[in-house]
Design brief:
alpha/beta; five-stranded parallel β-sheet
């Protein structure tokens, strides 16, 4: 769907450019918010609580400065209002411990970035298309979920 917000958490400028180029090449018209470290990513919880548009999908790297991607994932998935936002770990790490930990913390998918650009474009296009057009799930928007706490 056009104009849905995609949240990309990636510290490597080349990887950011490749991802944005892949989205453009795949003719995906999503608005993309890019943050470059885990601390900045966690700051968005406050912005979303303040009414800023929430993403339909978070693409999250593991190896991030200041706060690791796994810690970011843990905090996103433990937040009562944003735990339903799909998080796809899009990373170069194929370490079994990273995969296991990410899935245990609630990652919806774990994808090791392909080295081949054409394959990266195909993969990025397919995963964004899946989460924006095919997947049926809860869409989190400000005010759509009530705080279960009294």
């Amino acid at each position: 769907m056009k104009n849905q917000l995609l949240f990309l958490v990636e510290d490597n400028p080349l990887e950011v450019d490749l991802t944005l180029h892949a989205l453009k090449t795949g003719k995906l018209e999503n608005q993309v918010v890019v943050v470059r470290d885990g601390e900045e990513a966690l700051g968005y919880i406050t912005k979303w609580d303040g009414g800023e548009a929430t993403p339909f999908l978070i693409l999250l790297d593991i190896k991030l400065p200041r706060v690791s991607g796994l810690e970011v994932l843990r905090k996103f998935k433990s937040h009562w209002a944003y735990r339903t936002i799909p998080v796809v770990m899009l990373t170069s790490s194929s370490e079994e411990a990273d995969v296991r930990t990410a899935l245990e913390l609630g990652a919806n998918s774990y994808i090791v970035k392909p080295v081949n650009f054409e394959r990266f474009v195909e993969l990025t296009t397919a995963l964004v298309h899946y989460w924006s057009h095919i997947h049926t799930g809860v869409r989190t928007t400000p005010g759509s979920i009530q705080n279960p706490r009294p």
